[in-house]
Structures are given as structure tokens and as C-alpha cells.
Design brief:
Strand content: 15-25%
Oligomer: single chain
CATH superfamily of the largest domain: Ribonuclease H-like superfamily/Ribonuclease H
Strand order of the largest sheet: 5-4-3-6-7
Number of strands: 7
CATH topology of the largest domain: Nucleotidyltransferase, domain 5
Shape: globular
Structural class: alpha/beta
Length: about 270
């Protein structure tokens, strides 16, 4: 790819317009990147690395895999607004046959925190994050980052949420013990979002997600879900481009340092 350089008239230092963005050191032309970004945003369910490789005609599955991970890093604005009003908060396990409140003792269990704004009977914006466990030490920073102080936070009776009122939130509790309703009825929005998340992970990515990379898939799901009402897919494309040029580079080595890319399925 031909690189256009800008040169300082004073000191002669040269820099590329792509420097400091996720496109830095890209070997493929930007038109290919834009095609990839359109493929990611034009589909409501997104795309897998194998599908992207086939659509773009890329010679390497590794290239498609790394591009998608770089784009996922551009799907979250660091200065995004927190959820507010009434917010349901709960934690759940992915890849676990048994739901329990104790950490992640087995490697196939990953706990995630989920926060969902209430909009009447419907769903507002969401926030998600992988947690070390379901303790207060893990839940407190997640809630602080996701929910605006003064909001009503609706949870179940788990003691890990006892910190909420001390942190300036109004805490509403729905106790499961002695209640005839199912957990999904007491916190319906969180359970609906988790169900959609699991369906997306299984449908688009066949569930082949490593725990080390899960946060970035949660970011993609959040990006899509919070823009689900957009009538124009072009606006999603524009937003992703806008955030991509403000996102620091993510070299391939930094991606695989977390975990090696999964092998292509035949």
C-alpha cells in the first residue's frame, strides 16, 4: 500500500495520516479495510473471520482474524456516557453447565457482569464486562464504570451488591428466595440480553471464543445492540470509521500475546 507522508516545514519530521490509528502499518489498501468495516456493520449479526476472509478474498485466515479484533477495539468510546435512570444489574456464567455464586474455579466457566437500562417494559442501552468472580471487589468497579451515580440499580439479593448505597446508588432488590417467579421474570431485561448474547456467540462465531478475548466480543455485541434501532447501516459504518481513527494501533503481536488465534475450521 502506498503511504502518503506529511512533512513538517519547520523540522522536516515526517508522519503518516494513518499513524496512531488502527490502520497504522497496514499492508492492505484502505479500500479493503473499508470493505471489511462495511461487512462488519451491514450485517445485524456481524461476521466471522472465515466469512470475512472469503468475502474479501484474503489469502490468510490470520489476517481476517486480526482485522476483526482490531475493529472490535474501535467499537468502544472511552468517554461514552454511563447508563442512567433505572438499571438492571446481574452477573451470569458463559460456558458453565451449573450456575453458582462462587468465582470461576473451572476453566470452562467465565463470569460476566451485565447492566441494562430500563425503558418501560423494554430495553435501553447495555454494558458488559468479563469479571474475575461475582464478589464485591469485581462487581463494584464494573457498576461504577457502567452506571451513573444516583441511578436506581435493580439487582437480586446477592450480598455482593451491598456496596451500592454507599457508592451513591439507589438500590432496589428482588429476592429470589420465597418468590414464586423465575429469576428471568424478576430481572427480565438482563436475562433477555444474556440470551441474545449467547445466541449471537453460537450463531455467528460457533461458540469458539476464548476467555482471554471475550471482552472484545462483548464490546462488539454492545456496539451492535446499542445501535439496533438505527435505520441506516451506513451510520454504523460511519461511527466505526470515526472511532477507528481515534483508536491506538493494535499490532498482531499484542493480539496473540493474549491468546493465539483459533485454528481455521475445515
Amino acid at each position: 500500500m502506498r503511504t502518503v507522508l506529511f512533512e513538517c516545514a519547520h523540522c522536516g519530521a515526517q508522519t503518516s495520516v494513518l499513524a496512531g490509528t488502527i490502520f497504522q502499518d497496514a499492508r492492505q489498501p484502505l479500500t479493503q479495510w473499508f470493505r471489511a468495516m462495511w461487512s462488519v456493520t451491514s450485517s445485524k449479526t456481524g461476521t466471522s473471520a472465515l466469512s470475512l476472509q472469503q468475502v474479501l478474498g484474503l489469502g490468510s485466515y490470520k489476517t481476517a482474524w486480526s482485522w476483526l479484533h482490531k475493529l472490535r477495539r474501535a467499537m468502544v468510546r472511552p468517554d461514552r456516557d454511563r447508563l442512567h435512570g433505572r438499571v438492571e444489574v446481574d452477573e451470569t456464567f458463559l460456558g458453565a453447565p451449573i450456575m453458582r455464586r462462587v468465582g470461576t474455579a473451572r476453566s470452562n466457566k467465565v463470569v460476566i457482569g451485565v447492566a441494562v437500562e430500563e425503558e418501560g417494559d423494554g430495553l435501553g442501552r447495555v454494558r458488559m464486562r468479563r469479571l474475575a468472580d461475582a464478589s464485591t471487589a469485581s462487581l463494584r468497579p464494573f457498576v461504577d464504570e457502567a452506571v451513573e451515580r444516583g441511578s436506581v440499580v435493580h439487582t437480586d439479593g446477592w450480598m455482593g451488591y451491598d456496596f451500592l448505597e454507599r457508592r451513591g446508588y439507589r438500590h432496589e432488590i428482588s429476592f429470589l428466595r420465597g418468590h414464586t417467579a423465575a429469576p428471568s421474570e424478576l430481572l427480565p431485561r438482563v436475562h433477555r440480553v444474556v440470551s441474545l448474547l449467547k445466541r449471537w456467540l453460537l450463531g455467528t462465531h460457533q461458540g469458539a471464543i476464548t476467555p482471554e478475548h471475550l471482552d472484545y466480543y462483548l464490546d462488539e455485541f454492545t456496539f451492535r445492540f446499542n445501535r439496533r434501532r438505527s435505520r441506516s447501516r451506513g451510520k454504523l459504518f460511519y461511527r466505526l470509521v470515526q472511532q477507528a481513527v481515534a483508536t491506538p494501533p493494535a499490532p498482531y503481536r499484542s493480539l496473540v500475546r493474549i491468546a493465539a488465534p483459533p485454528k481455521r475450521k475445515m
